[in-house]
Each structure stands twice: as structure tokens, then as C-alpha cells.
Queue: 2 jobs
Job 1
Amino acid sequence: MAARRLESTSGASRDGTAGRMPVRLHIDWTRCDGRGLCTELLADQLTRDEWGYPLARRADDASNVPIPAAQLDAAHDAVALCPRQALRLVAE
Amino acid sequence: MDALPPVHGAPGPSAETTAPLAGGVVPPATTARLFLAADPTFAAHRAVYGPMPSIEHPNALVDELRLSGLDGRGGAGFAVWRKVAAVRNSSARRSKRPIVVANGSEGEPLSRKDETLMRRAPHLVIDGLLACAAVVGATDATLYVSTEGANVMRAAMAERADAAHVAVVVAPDGFVTGEATAVANALEHGVSVPRDHVVHLSESGVRGRPTLVQNVETLAQLALIARFGAAWFRSIGTADEPGTRVVTVSGAVDIPQVIEVAGGTPIRAIIDACMRPDHTLAGSLIDGSATPLSATEGRPSPVRAVLVGGYHGGWVPGDRLSVPLSRAELAPYGAQPGAGVLFVLGATACGLETSANIAAYLAGQSAGQCGVCVNGLPAMADVLSRLAARHRDARLPAEITRLADLVTGRGSCSHPDGTARFVLSSLTAFETDVRAHLEGRCEVHG
């Protein structure tokens, strides 16, 4: 995957400058513990599997979930609030 | 599969040009390319292959690699020139010194080719590693190998002055310890488990430096391409599968062995090379263009299926053995030439039982870091074992497929993906036996 890391909680992203480029939510499976906060914040993108881990509802890449512009703020919240720090946003 | 007989190259067509090069060295003319040295010493190596040319024009070697079509021999089969060029480019762009690693950890239990190569031709591996380092401008070169590999490689390095700086890191046993990000982790943190990554190692690997990890056979092949060129490399094999590859054949064969074969060789021919003359398969199977011979008519096939590509590979059914060792033609079976593993399942073994045992092994080889792998692989292996045990539950195949889809792409390395692919291939290759098992029968055990 060709991706670069975004400054995940920067103000620049929140004011929309990053919203113009396609963004994916990267899941670090080595950290994820299936707490489920992200699946509540991004219910349209993520559900939970039978063990509680986030499961992309539609994705070509199950570890890098496409985030629509309208969900960018929620995605930033998911990154910031993940108790395992298992999430980050990456540009496509 | 403990003691493997000596390696030999299968007979093959002669190269078009075998004109002697400087120093009287003649490029290898048959499929016996990598194991020509009489012994593992530097003197024997130089006598056969001549000196390694110095890399004065790195881009020229990258071009030669591109023209050669050499693919990685560790399993994934990625084009070698692309990885080398990516490391070279990202190093220049980011002004970071790259690191090169020869990977001979060979965590695949069915593979012995890397160990054999290091034991028999260690200097080709060193030549290739040093050439890679020169091409990408690396001053750090590391061998990441098994304990035995470390011993033979240290002995070889002691014979030559140019390898004094090469570090040796011993890889622990385990199926996933040789995965490229696990190698990077081992070098950086001393822990051989895969790690999360959003960019390729070629961009940012060990301590953020561009990192080139190449299998030891890949490096040995590269050392020959640097000497004799891409046209020579392609003079054996097919257009799509140029050159030779080293394969490990085990299971229901008379002579389990490591053997160097031409790219695109039919699986049947490789198996026949591992059989006593009266046991060969040629003509004995009804398969495409094969013509049954009177001498073998009526003899049941001794092969039920062949697992190609190792535990992350796929089963090729016993009536499809004319399939060549080729990426394109193996793809429908979920297999690829990969690390060159062929495991032959005899006619008296149940494919589903064997597959269930392998799936259980793979589940146990999870590094334990990713929850989907930790939970999903044992679940998948368990359902497959119920199918193998002839539980009369028609939902089992669909449940296996569901779990395979569920785990795929959801780990930091490809272990869940490879395990899912293998399990799915067992449902396909043994399709009629799946139906029998669901009725409480077994095609093999009755």
C-alpha cells in the first residue's frame, strides 16, 4: 500500500484541508483489542466481528478502511479516542 | 524428510551461448546452475563461477535484473528489480542509508532449499548480498538465518575479506519469523514477530531506513545474473518463468530431495525426478494431453494431490499434474511457485485429514499479536477438522468459507491470508471427498 501518515489530530485536518484528499483509516491489528469504540463512532463504515474486532462493511483493503469526507471528523475522534492507539489516518 | 540426498540439476536444454568469459569461466549451460561448485569453499566457487564483477554501474544491474525477470524466491514472488529500485530510490530521496538483508530463515517446515543452498553454495549468497548492497548503496548487510545456516555462512565469510562487515543474526524457529516485517523487527528490536506497517520496508524498515530483504536463493540467482547477464538467465525456463528455481520435494516420493529445475517445468516431471524409474508417473494419469502407455495402463495413480507453494500454498489435484511450475497456471489452484515447495500426497492419504492437520499447525503458528488471527485461525481449523472427521453437517463447508473470508486481510502480516487460501484450496481440490465426508464416508478410507 502506498500511503503516508497524516498528522492525525492536527487542526489543519479538522478545518478541512485534508478532507479534500481520500483518506483511509488504518487498523494496527497488533494493538487492536476489540474495544469497539471506533465501530460506534463510524457505524456506517465499521461493524464488529464475532470476536469484537472492527470489520469494514465494504472495503477492498480490510486493514485500511476508506473514510468518506463527511465522516472525517468522526474518524479523527476514533483515532484520538482509541484506548489501544491502534488507529491512524493515512492518505491514499 | 531428515536426510536429503545430494542436490542435482534436472537435465535441461543447453544455453544458446556458452562462450568462455574472462578467466576461462564458462557460463553454466544446463539447469544445474547454482550447485556446480565441487565443495562449499571459496576456491571451488571461484573456479566454477569466476570472480564477481564489481558493481560500477548500479542502474545497469537493475536493468539487467528487470530484463532477467527474476522474481523473489522466498514465497511472495515479487519482481526483484522493483524492490531493489524502490530501496535505491527511497534512499536517495530521503537521504537515508539503506540496509540489505539476506533472508535464509526458512520457517516453512516443508522447505529445505535455503539450508541446502547455504550449505552447498554459500559464496553465491554472499556475492548476491554484497552486490545488492553495492547497488542500493548500503554499508550495512545482514544475514538472517537459521542456526545451521549461521554456522556454514560464518565459515564461508571467514574465507573472504570482502564479507568481514556482514552481520549474522540467528532467526528463531517458527513459521512467521521469516516474514519480512518480522525480519525488520528482529534486526531492530531482537523480536522476530511481524509488525504493523503502512509503507513498504523498501521505504521505511529497520530504524526507519529503506530496507531490502531478499531470500538467499534470490541473491544466489542475482549473483549469476550479475556475472552472465539477463539473456543467459532466460536461456533456460519459459518466457513467463525464466531461469531455474530450487524446489524441495517431499511426501510420497521415493527420493525426497532438493532439486534445481527449469522454470515452467510440469509438476509431474519434478515428481518423476524424485521417483525410482519403475515408479514414474509419465503417461499413467488421465490428464489433458497425456497419453496412457500400455506399460502403465490400469495402474492407479500413486499421487492424490500435490501441495505446491508450502503451507500457504494450494493443492493441485493428482489428475492435474501437467500443470507447470508457473505463477499464471498455478493461480487457479491458489498456489504459486513461491518458495518452491512440493509436498506429494499419496493415494492412501485423506486430503482433508492432512489439510486439517496443517491448518491446525498454522493456527498454532500465529505470532499471537492480532486478535483476528488468534481467534479466527483456530476456529477455521476446527471446522475443517470436523469436516475431516466426517461430521454430517452440511453447513461446514460454507462456515469454512465464511471464516476464510473473515480473516483475510485482517492481520499485520499475510499469515491469516495464506492460511485461508490454503484451507479454501483444500475444499476445492478435494471437492468430491468433501461431499463424501458430509455423508459420513471417505474416498480414501471408505
Job 2
Amino acid sequence: MKRTFSFLGILTALLLMVACSDENNVNSSGSNETEGEADQLVIGFSQPTLESPFYTALIEGAEEEAEKQGVKLIVVDAQNDIEKQNSDVQSLITQGIDVLLLNPVNPAAVTPSLKAAEQANVPVIAVDRNTKQEVTSYIGRDNKEMGRLAGQKAIELLGGEGNAAGKIIEIQGDAGGTVMQARHDGFHESVKNEAGVQIIEGPYSNYIRAEAVSAMQDLLQAHPDVNLVYAHNDDMALGVIQVLEKSGKLQDVKIVGIDGLMEAVKQIEEGKFEATVLNDPISLGVLAIQNAVNVGEGKSIEQYIDGGTGLVDQTNVDQYLDETKKFAEIK
Amino acid sequence: MSMDVEGVEAPKTKKFQTKDFVKKYNLFFILIGFFIIGSLLSEHFLTTQNVLNVLQQSSFVGIVAIGMTFVILVAGIDLSVGAVLALSGMLVSLLLSQGMNPILAIIITIMAGALMGFVSGFLSTKFKVPAFIATLAMMVSARGFALLTTDGEPIYDLPPMFTALGESVGRIPVPVIIWVILTIISAIALKYTTFGRKLYAVGGNEESARLSGISVEKYITSTYLLSGVLAAIAGILMSAWLTVGQPTAGQGLELDAIAAVVIGGTSLAGGKGGIGGTFIGVLIMSIIVNIFNLLGLSSYYQSIFMGAIIVIALIMNQYLANKK
């Protein structure tokens, strides 16, 4: 009896989690559709996590577009667990999806998912993060290009090409992450020819603001003469602003981030922050659905579809500022 | 705590006291050692601002680790603290964004933390669910609720009356002041009240504590309740300090808190240890990270070194405990 109780307690907790991640699914029964819907296209979308505003916005974009196109979308959340992702995909296939959108937890470890999709003749489109094995198409963004754009802006802020001089602190994402690597490499590629520029690579702060604050506090002690901070995402950049504000250095230090988080765009408008690079999740979700519909209808699509990017700075911030959005939209 | 480490000679009255003293004394020396190493390695280490930064970076883990000390003293473990911190931060931000009075919002949030702690304690004592599992369930569901509140979105624009909690008095950040006050209160409660003594009794030997008439379940449950309250306080302070409620806050914090408690000499088997050691344990961990950051060394080395420190601390505590 007691055991049953405790078991029930744990079960309830786990069910709650499932409820959290499942609540935005349109009916996930899938198999018992009415006659009228029999020819409706069904798209499955396996996400690595819904624990960040970026991914929730990506799904929002996808859901809106699916409704517009009149297709059925089933979203599953792997909670950063590759095992769960593989079994998620299995169950999507069992539910009879026509196209699979896959944002892999790990590019190489989704092989079981891809095998299962192949056996069931379900085309796979990788979204946001690419898979190691080639699939029908990859819809994503060039994070290296984002790093390059941030680097070019940094050079401009530090005196222009050929004359740029100063000390840059880099607040990095997650150790070993592909996005981190790309945003790091792109930036370094841009500034590598500037003899007067020195980059201090800061500790990995996992894209989390609290960790970026601690890192920046320490780095500011070691490098009080810093001229510019480049953060791998805007949430960390907002933490950097906070540290600089509290130590009265915000006027002397330029800041460049990535993502186009609306909160950061607001700060650009207020002049606290120089620039961010667009990484609009909503449009990526829309693109994913549009292409999934095309594939589902038997059309062929490009092997690589670029979601695009761009720079938001003091000169064009007015075009992007929109309080109702969470991220700046690509124009 | 400085109150435990003053004096140069061990009092020769009781063996137990001497041992206790030696243990604290050692920890304190290790802390001083790190201070010396830090100052030698970087000229930025021993500046007022840097020391304040280290204290500030310690404060959230520090507050959570106080609660963890209580729980570990009765041979329990609480994995839910990071998630409870996140949910509390979201709850207080949510209430504030509805225009609630900050004092009221804080009180409600602390009560919610207490409730979560109580549920963990109740599950593990009443239904004999192992603490590891009960608090793991709480961790998973609290994190789920934290994300559910706003669909994973952070809450911005908290009122200045509330974010004042993240500011400084003079140059000392408010979270640091609260951490020190809570540490002193808890240390006194553990050392000089019947509640504290009974906790040691329960942790030392549950069965004999039960036979001597202590209501063991009540005491064990109360430690989880305290842990929930302290995690909620840390969550409130973190939101105020970051001026944003974030559902992903405090991830992995439970492990840092457990490590700090262990480094501080509290035994995972229960019944041995104290708040002063935990305080120093938290500082040692923060100083290591700080030194690595000042020197610009990779986080990878940081993790390896931290692992080594935890093992060394465990071995040392074991050795001191067995020394007659």
C-alpha cells in the first residue's frame, strides 16, 4: 500500500512533466482520424528541448504556419535526452506522420530515428541543428556567419578595418557545443587580421545570464581596460550590461550580442548596447512548415535552406523594435 | 564561521571538542591557503572589489547550502533545491508582474518553498520513499512548473522596489548580507538549541533517537521544509539581482550545494558537521572558480581541479573523523 502511494506520487510528478511538454499538441491520438481528415498532411516535429524562449518561439512560428496551411502538427519535446528523442520519433512514426522535422539533441546520435524514418518512408528535414547523416534537407542558419557579422561590427566599433585596436572579452556559450564553436570561429575569423585587437576568451557560461554575470565580474577585475564585450547570446550580453552598469563602466565598454532578443533590442534603442545579430526563431518555424508541406506534396526542395540573418544596431534599431515580439523579426 | 575558528590552542577539556576544533581549524587554514595562492597568482585577487565579487557569487549557493546542511545532517539529501529556486524566482516575478505588493509576494513565495520542502520530507518519512527519489521527483516537477508558468519565457521589468534586494548597502551586496545573517542564525540554532541537538541525535543514530523519545519523522521533515524555504529565499534574491525571473535558473545548483557541504566537513552519513564548515566550503569553491577566471584558464581545468578538491576534502574529513 505504502509503496503504491509513493509510486503514485512519483508517477504524478512525471505525468505533470509530460503534461507540461504536451499541452500544446493538437490531438496527439493521430490514428483515429475522421474520414474527412484522412488526406490531411501530418507533420511531426521533434525538438531537443522547450526550456528556452528561442525554442518555444520556434514552435509558435511552426504552429501558426501549420494552422494557416491546414496541416496537422505534432510536437514532441526530448528534454535534452537523446534516448527520449529516438523513442519520440518512433512514436511519431507509429502515429503515421508524413514528414518528420527533426532538431537533433546530438547530430550523430539520432541514427536510430533516421533508420526508423527511412524504413517507414518518411522524409526527414533537419531544423536549426543539422544531423551528421545527410537527410532530405537542412533548414538552419549559419552561426559562423553570425559570429562574422558580430566580428565586423566589433572592428567598426574599435576604429575600423586596419586600424581597430583594443581589448575584447568573449563570453562563451557551452563547452563543446556546435553553435558555440561556430559563433566563436566566425568572430575570430573576422578580427584575426587586426593586429591591434586582443581577444580574452572568457569561461563558458552556458548561455545563462547568471553565469555570465559571475564570469564578467571576474574578467572585469582581471581586465579593467576592456573596450568591447562579445557575448555568444543576448541573454548573457544583458548580464554583462548589468555588471558594467553597476561598476560604472557602461559608457566606456561596447557590447555586441547574438539572437536579436527583443529585450536586447530595447537596450540598443536606449543606447546601452551596440549591436545584436538576428536569429529569428519564428521565421525559422514558418520556413520549416512551408518546406515540410512541399516535401509532403512530393515537390523537391533545396538540400540547404538558409534562414538568413542580419545586424541590428543603432542605425536600424527602429525597424526591429516591436514590444509584442520576443525576438526581432528578419526583414 | 569565525566563531568556530578563533583561538590558537585547542581546549583540552573533551576529546570530541578537540577533534571538532581541529577539523574547523584545518578548513580555515585551507581557505587562508587559497587566499595566499590567489594573491600570488593574480594581483587582482586581493582587491576589495574582487573579494566582494567572490562573496556575491557565493551568496546564492551559500543560502541553499545552509538548508542542504540541515538535510545532510539527518542523513538525507535534497536534489530539488535548484528547481525550487527556479520556481520560487518565477513565482515571485509572476506575482510582482500582477502588481502585488513585494512584501506579500515574497511571503507567499517563501511559503510555497516551505510547502515544496514539506512535500519532499513528507514523502520520504511517511511513505519511506528514499530521499534521493522523493527529492528527484520534486526536482523534476518543480522545474516543469517553473517552465509551465510562462511557457519557458523569462519575466522582465520587475519593480525597482523589489530589485533593490539585488543592490548593495554601501559596497556590500544585499544577498551577501542576508547569507551571512542566515548563516549566523542557523549556526546558533544548530549549536545552542534543543532543535539543533536533536537533529544531531537523529542524524547520528535514528533508532536510538527514536527510542529516547524524539519524534524523528517530524525533525527529518522539518529539515526539508527549511531547505525549501532557503531555496525560495535564494530564488527571490536571484530574481532581484538579475532583475529577471528565469525558469532555467539554478540548474546544477544542487550539486554545488552538496559539494560545498561535503567540503565543509558535514558527513553524508549524517550526525556530523555544521554550518560554519559549509560557509567555508562555499567560499573555497567560489575562490577556485574566481582564480581560474582571473588567470583566464579554461573551464575544463576548473572542473578537474574542483573534482580533486572535493575528493581531497572527503579524505581529509574521513581521516580527521577516525583520528582518536
